[in-house]
Amino acid sequence: MTDEAATAQAVRAAEAAPEPEPLPHGLGVSLPAADARAKTEGTFPYAADLWAEGLLWAAVLRSPHPHARIVSIDTTHAREMPGVRAVVTHEDVPGDPLHGRGTADRPVFASEVVRHHGEPIAAVAADHPDTARMAAAAVIVEYEVLDPVTDPEQAFEAEPLHPDGNLIRHIPLRHGDPDAAGDVVVEGLYRIGRQDPAPIGAEAGLAVPRPDGGVELYLASTDPHGDRDTAAAAFGLAPDRVKVVVTGVPGATADREDRGFQLPLGLLALRTGCPVKLAATREESFLGHAHRHPTLLRYRHHADAEGRLVKVEAQILLDAGAYADTSSEALAAAVAFACGPYVVPNAFIEGWAVRTNNPPSGHVRGEGAMQVCAAYEAQMDKLAKKLGVDPAELRLRNVMATGDVLPTGQTVTCPAPVAELLEAVRDFPLPPLPKDTPEDEWLLPGGPEGAGEPGAVRRGVGYGLGMVHMLGAEGADEVSTATVRVQDGVATVLCAAVESGQGFSTLARQIVQETLGVDEVHVVPVDTDQPPAGPGCRGRHTWVSGGAVERAAKMVRTQLLQPLAHKFGMSTELLQITDGKITSYDGVLSTTVTEAMDGKELWATAQCRPHPTEPLDASGQGDAFVGMAFCAIRAVVDVDIELGSVRVVELAVAQDVGRVLNPAQLAARIEAGVTQGLGAALTENLRTPRGLVRHPDLTGYALPTALDAPDIHIVKLVEERDVVAPFGAKAVSAVPVVTSPAAIASAVRAATGRPVNRLPIRPQAAVVTAGG
């Protein structure tokens, strides 16, 4: 066949072929992640991969002691080493020497006292990373070692560890009748360990000095404007002379960046006049960033003879570590949700957050709520056992619903389908039991080659009900700004909401596609030249940033439709955009978006700010939260009662999501949250004997792997839209983290009959002795 004939045949085949189906777009479909291709091809721009001409390398000297007085710092030897370009200490900080997320109480470099293991003392810039590390080690620090305060209960009586004292916050919540009492009373003491966010990529960054005397910071930041303002204050510069450019974020389940990491980086760049790069080791990552608050909880539940809750009394003590960070906010959540998603007419909760010489604690998914969930669900199991009532039935007798009142006095106005969620997981079919003969292959606790015997394995079924708040609380001003621009059939979204794995970039594309009927949507990379959008946590960007994008897109839609509506003598509400076509209600008008644009550029900027909240008052009362989300999980576990090893067989999840915006993305977020909770329940505990971080690496800190992940079944998603939220959607990733540890512990209790009052669950807690 000649080339001409082949071409003609191809043309005829193309003409005869049916039109390809348009790709799905808009809200409610599983649009692929915006960065999926770059990540799979290895072109995603992580901070650790950045390079600049004349690059220097940085290293940080960190304290080997959890508590010590600094007698002297000698940098002479480090400065004299060949290849070293600069050494900075507390004396070289030109601006504010203190920083912090919630409270500015943490020094850029320790000057007089070291308050935790790994606190920065000095930083070095050199022409090779090995030289920088050797120079940092050559800084001579003379310490007077002090006894660390590592027990948060001792912090009340100990000498002040900080000029601000050891007590960060105390919340005495009072709700109802203090003399109320129930027919049945159960008590418990619970301990929650220190979970590390363990980001898949350790902290890294690049600082580049600017000709105007400022500096640009290239970071995997989740709060670029907050990081910029902190850096500018430390550098003694105006905020407009510091620019933060967000690089690819390798996952974030907490505040991604340790600000104590990026401040030395910028100082070295300003001092040397050269680009400086710092890539933290895994050990430095563990020492530097914030962890989940270790928590001590004492509970007493009162119930009537039918199992209905009468009163809950609790004491909650959060170990904030050396600095305040976001401990005040975590304590507010812990106290407010101390009774869980249950109707409790009388509640008396005492909550404290205190400083110790342990590593700093801060924001990790579900902070405060996760710790109390493990405790109040253990109490519900104890109550069910004492009353001889099925644990699920006891919970159903007490669950809250829309219109009920929290112990803070706030009415739950958002959808709260807690009973529906619990019934869904309770009624979901249980997994089949394993074979009871050793010849048949089945997974034993401890892995495929588990050392136990099948005869020692007991199966347990447990339940967890959890709740979290969305957005900031107690008067936090939640606001985000977005700009949407459309030209030549292409839309561009400008919003400083960082894509940290939660899917905001994909959601922004879907919103614009849904509103304007434009297939091609680009989201501009984030930097601080854009208006602020706030930090990426507690579902903020789905709500406030997604809301801002929607409002801006609707404003552009109005600009697009108004000329057509005026021409045909109708209102814009009578026109609709579907699959890139504009049609009127009566069919008179039918045109494409591209034709209606006629080469014009349309754009609009909008803000989204939810309704205001208020701080909790002196008795823990107040409308402190914008909205809440709920989850129910049923856990099925196999426990080897001789070895104490636990295998989670299945987790059935039902969740209140408001509206499903991207089904695949939502499922992935729930599964990831459940798995993070699995780690908190069974393996993850950063050990800090006498304040020293033990085994700060991924061999000593046991993250759950794919082999540890159980079957996760999302059995129900309740789509009852929250009328005050854009699109009616709720945050989805934090509440399964909160709930799954409690459900797993409940199942282990059911299998063993043991109390299980500590997370992660230690093997000895699951061992049943001959008489047990």
Automatic annotation (TrEMBL):
Skewed-composition ranges (Low complexity): 1-17
Stretches the record annotates as Disordered: 1-27
SMART domains cross-referenced by the UniProt entry: Ald_Xan_dh_C
Source domain of life: Bacteria
InterPro entries per UniProt: Ald_Oxase/Xan_DH_a/b (IPR000674), Ald_Oxase/Xan_DH_a/b_sf (IPR036856), Ald_Oxase/xanthine_DH-like (IPR016208), AldOxase/xan_DH_MoCoBD1 (IPR008274), AldOxase/xan_DH_MoCoBD2 (IPR046867), AldOxase/xan_DH_Mopterin-bd_sf (IPR037165)
Limits of the Aldehyde oxidase/xanthine dehydrogenase a/b hammerhead domain: 41-147
Pfam families on file: Ald_Xan_dh_C, MoCoBD_1, MoCoBD_2
Protein's UniProt name: Xanthine dehydrogenase family protein molybdopterin-binding subunit
Organism per entry: Streptomyces atrovirens
